[in-house]
Every structure is written in C-alpha cells, then in structure tokens.
Amino acid sequence: MIKRPRRLRSKEPLRRMVRETRIDKASLIYPLFVREGEKIREEIPSMPGQYRYSVDRLPEELEQVAKAGVPSVMLFGIPGEKDEQGSQAYAQDGIIQRALREAKRQFPELYYITDVCLCEYTSHGHCGLLRGQEVDNDPTIRLLAKTALSQVQAGADMVAPSDMMDGRVAAIRALLDEKGYENTPIMSYAVKYASGFYAPFRDAAESAPSFGDRSSYQMDYHNSREGIREVLLDEEEGADIIMVKPALAYLDMITRVREATKLPVAAYSVSGEYAMIKAAAQKGWIQEDKIVCETAVAAFRAGAQSYLTYYAKELAGYLDEGRIG
Ligand code: PBG
C-alpha cells in the first residue's frame, strides 16, 4: 500500500502538526444575563451553571471571565418593568446601560458586546412594536437604533442586533454615525432561525412571546438561500460581522456564509445547545468536556472565526490544558 492515511495519525505531535483547525481564546465570547435588583446571583433553571446577576454582583463574574482568559462578553438585560414599547431597552438608566457603566469601570480590559432587541423589554415578548397582532417593522427599527445608541453611549464596544427586522442594520449604522460613533462595529445576527433551541434563553430572560411565535421575523429553518440573502443585505447595510445562530444544527450555513461574504463569521451556540449537553452530562450519558470540545471545534471547522458559547470559560480551560486547539 502506498497511501496510508493512518501514518499521519500515528503520534500525538504529528496529529497536532497536521491539525487543520486551530482555536484560541481570542475567538470566544461569553453571554451573560443582567437583571434588576440587588445582591442577586440566581441560577437559571433550564441552564444549570448559568446565572442572572444584579449589577452589583456582575463584577465578580466578570473577574472569573477575565481570569479564564475569555476576552469578550455579550450582555443581555432583564428589566424590572416591561411595557408595550420596550422602553427600558433604550432608557438612559436601563439595566444594560447601568451594567455597562459599572462593568467598564471595574473591568475596562474586557470587550463588551450588547444584544440589541426588544423582546426582553416588551410586555408581549415580541422583538418589536405591535400593530394588532403583527410586529411593525419600520417604527421598530427606529427604536432598535435608539437602543443601540444608548448602549454605545453607556460604553458598549460593539452592538449586536438580534431582532431580525428588515433594515435594522442600516438604521443603527445611520444613527451611530450621526452621533459620532462611526467606528463602533455592528455584529449582525443575520442568519437567525426561528428555533426551538432558544427555549432556555427565553426562560432566562423571561422573553417568551405571550402569543404566537417569532416565525414572521426569524427565518424558516428549511431555507439556506434566504440566509445568504440576509447576509448580503446586512453587508450592504454596513454590518461588520455576520452571525449564524444556532450553531450546531446550522453548520452548513456557517460554511455557506463564509463563502458568500468576506466579513468575519461568528457562530452562536445557543441556550438549547448548552442545555442538551448539560442535561445529558448530568445523567451520565455523555462526557461533558468531550462533547463541548467536539461541538466547539465543529463550528470553527465549518468556518466560524468567533464563537459565542455558555461554555466559554470551560473551553478556555480546555485550551489551556492543550486538549483542543
Ligand atoms: C433576543 C435573543 C434571543 C437569543 C439571543 N438574542 C432569543 C430569541 O430570539 O428568542 C437566543 C440566545 C440563546 O438561546 O442562547 N432576540
């Protein structure tokens, strides 16, 4: 036999030498939930090991994140009061705005990304303003732009619209530019599917829609060309990074998106992905660390450059130990 693929698998140094996918901690983004109140660190029932923090207790978690060597966080806010307009999303003293000021003061070395959406802030749980039973696109994007601006004014380094309204990237870009924030990047959740994988997040953020579902704005998971259309539109509107979400069931989209754009591609391993691994591991049916490594590498192998995951701190540890990367 002349060709024997096994030769390259014979020893660990050689296997590492020819490894095709390399990861480092610089790619990781850790999502965190901040809520109203004081002295609160409460575990999210459907996401064991993940917590909601009040602003005063957020820094202790940021310290852990920084210590693990994870350079960036994505912040989600849970306001005390929700209303029809989601007004706490763009209030100067809203939960995210206060959390940002405090976080930046104590841990200025971390990079802060904020989720831009109304669903955590609206009483009806939809991602925008309602007109009857419909989410009204154009007035919504004005509020999303206002939300992004108030987050940037409070210290956000980057904004990440996750609402899936048409034209939101352009609206956000225009307002940020007008106010002198032309260098603040936008990471667009461009390829975001209407997915059952978000259920634990909605539990965490108390943001499940009170009627209907999100399929009039998030994408139908039977479609892939439509995802590329979203990418091209967001690129034209000024997005700087394109996100695919969820990750594990959409690896094909990560690969396709990477081919369709020259922008960096991020993948979000969402709450349901975390919950599935956690639950099976707790039952002793799978080995958590192995599955976490394998699913993370899969996203990078598919073509992601950045990776949002609730396992970011653990992954940083596995990278330190040389188990992956
Ligand atoms: C807000 C938003 C959601 C997620 C990120 N931003 C929930 C949703 O669209 O219902 C999901 C993240 C996760 O499941 O981890 N629109």
Structure overview:
By secondary structure, the chain is of the alpha/beta class. It has eleven helices and twelve strands. The chain has helices spanning 12-17, 58-68, 95-106, 137-153, 168-178, 199-205, 225-237, 251-260, 271-282, 288-302, 312-320; strands spanning 28-35, 41-44, 47-54, 72-78, 111-116, 130-131, 134-135, 158-161, 187-192, 241-245, 265-269, 306-309. The strands form two sheets. Strands 1, 2, 3, 4, 5, 8, 9, 10, 11 and 12 form a ten-stranded mixed beta sheet that branches. Strands 6-7 form a two-stranded antiparallel ribbon. α7 (225-237) crosses α8 (251-260). The structure holds ligand PBG.
Largest sheet: 10 strands, mixed
Question: Unreliable runs, pLDDT <50, ≥5 residues?
Answer: none
Q: Give a count of the beta strands, DSSP E runs of length 2 or more.
A: 12
Helix segment tally: 11
Form type: globular
| Relative helix content | 25-40%
How widely separated are the two ends? 32 Å
Using only C-alpha atoms, the radius of gyration works out to 20 Å
Strand content: 15-25%
Identify the bound ligands.
ligand PBG
What integer is the average pLDDT? Answer: 97
Give the helices and strands, then pairings.
Layout: H1 12-17, E1 28-35, E2 41-44, E3 47-54, H2 58-68, E4 72-78, H3 95-106, E5 111-116, E6 130-131, E7 134-135, H4 137-153, E8 158-161, H5 168-178, E9 187-192, H6 199-205, H7 225-237, E10 241-245, H8 251-260, E11 265-269, H9 271-282, H10 288-302, E12 306-309, H11 312-320
Parallel strand pairs: 1-3, 1-4, 1-12, 4-5, 5-8, 9-10, 10-11, 11-12
Antiparallel strand pairs: 2-3, 6-7
Helix pairs in contact: 4-5, 7-8
This protein binds ligand PBG.
Residues 115, 117, 119, 127, 162-163, 198, 201-202, 270-271 line the site of ligand PBG.
